[in-house]
Amino acid sequence: MAVTFVLLPGAGSDSWYWHRVVPILTSHGHAAITVDLPYSDESAGQYEFADVVVKAFRDVEGPVVLVAQSMSAFTAAIVCERTDVDVDLLVLVAPMLPAPGESAGEWWANTGQSAAQRAFAVSEGRDPAATNDLRELFFHDVPEELIEEAFQAEEVAMSDTPFETVWQAEEWPHVKTRVIAGSRDRLFPVDFMKRIVRERLGIAPDVIDAGHLIALARPRELAAALEGYVEGL
Questions:
Q1: Which of 32, 70, 144, 173 is the most exposed place for a label (fewest CB within 10 A)?
Q2: Pair 213, 142: CB distance under 8 Å
Q3: Contact by Cβ (8 Å): 80, 88
Q4: Average pLDDT, the chain
Q5: What are 95-149's pLDDT values in tens digits?
Q6: 3-state secondary structure string, 150-197?
Q7: What single-letter DSSP state applies at residue 44?
Q8: What is the pTM of this model?
Q9: Is 218 helix (H, G, I), strand (E, B) or coil?
């Protein structure tokens, strides 16, 4: 079954993040829409981000699979609440999995992310204090040529506004949801992700052998997982 994948990047990123996955999906007959979120706009929070996403696929005919990386899980949850759009499946990739009534800024302390990241670093023999090395934290399993391309690109500035937006919901949207975690994710360690997904959604994430940036490091495995979910619709 052919579907339209709507792909959201994580914080500080843009549609380039999905450039290795999109050709695989489209070569198999699917459509793919990548959405750039206005992360640098001080006037835009998560609900304004959701408006941008809805505008991108409002007129799409046929099944829609919304895929969100990292912090854009907050945006995706808000999109799925909207009554003016129809999302058939929500897939969250290495997500900041939100809870109703929570902001992205509160999420870190609420989930215990910092302690989990530190414990994972210690378990791997890495310096738990070296949290500002973006190459080591995010790009440790990404091909070198992509790392250089990523760091040569213009940096996407991050506003504080999306971190301050509280998700005004009472429950998780009634949309079929799947979660993908990276087994070597240094930001959101896999055991941490399994706990949060179980506590908040009551399901287990599927795991891909990758770090946080799964679409860059393991595009074929990620695309296969997405298409596998579509077969189950």
A1: 144
A2: yes
A3: no
A4: 95
A5: 999 999 999 999 999 999 999 999 999 999 998 887 778 899 999 999 999 999 9
A6: HHHCCCCCCCCHHHHCECCCCCCCCCCEEEEEECCCCCCCHHHHHHHH
A7: -
A8: 0.97
A9: coil
